[in-house]
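Attaching the record inline, Q. Sequence:
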Amino acid sequence: MEIFRAEGKESLTETVYYDLISDIRREELSLTFLLAGFDSDGLGHIRVVTSDDAPQDFDMLGFAAIGSGAASALGSLSFARDHCRLLHTSDMHEVTYHVLSAKFMAETSRT
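Structure, as predicted:
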């Protein structure tokens, strides 16, 4: 952006330059982050943070997903929790299986 502001006026007409500046100002970034980590007591936490809303807490649910396939992934993980007894104490192989199932389910989502 700094280079554009410094050199744009020289390489573009004034009208084009200011039209581009206006277009850039109208753009909104839509950012979503999934944050997971542990606090000083060793307790895990999951948050989804967007550029528009307050952080969402997924600690009680125990899992979260973002992106275009989030609904499919959450549905798959919810099914695993409710019908396959997927728990936070499940072994790594079982968790990996269900997380990959949710990932593959999410990949079929159409945006």
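The first strand starts at residue 32 and ends at 38. Helices lie at 2-11, 14-26, 70-83, 92-107.

More tomorrow.
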